[in-house]
Amino acid sequence: MIDLHSHILHGVDDGAASLADSVEIARAAVADGITAIAATPHVRDDWPTDPSVMEERVAELRSELEERRVPLDLLTGAEIALDWLTRLGEDELRRFGLAGNPRYVLVETPYYGWPSALPDGLFALREAGFTPVLAHPERNLEVQAHPERLLGLVDGGVLIQVTAASVDGRIGKRPRECARRLLEGRLVHMIASDAHHAAVREVGLRTATQAVGGGALARWLTYDVPAAVVADEPIPQRPAPERRRGGWLGKLFEV
Q: How far apart are CA 12 and CA 55, in angstroms?
């Protein structure tokens, strides 16, 4: 599996506090079956990460993982707040490109409200040649009430990334229900951990793949699409529904 959202870099935001914490997150990711992880520190008012700091910390952690023989490919990136999209120059946005791909930008969904600047900002990225990836919209109260808000964004070329802990219910009923509805509506392209801590339950994607019933869809969400982003290849077509048993999304595979 490939995880394209984590706060594995130490001392830059509310994720890993030390290099040792970063290594523990990496080990937990490997234990869960993750082979590559994107370091996506916050870029917002409370944590205004500079691209040079992100790049330096990634290089430092890569060296540490190699020395400790932790078999995890560490990729660059950032999780950029909506109001920072216009503050950053094109070069900075490309240096923050998701998984080291300068054509993709991970954008943080606000937890409250649905500002008109959100779709405008995402479409502005599209016009500038970027593919926006919208992080954890299922945790936004407005999206929970009106998941159809994402239809126009997806039709306009925005990719949607949901959090594993939402899909498998670890962070509550409302995010889980919203994630389910988005998945049923074929509005989700990736599942990521958004890991801040070292416990496998915080890092892992495996329980989320089990929640969606495994199979081709789980692989598409946790490997095929992320791998296409990493390799700068076309996003593969969503697999046809399968008939499956088990998992709270079992009905998804029967429609």
A: 12
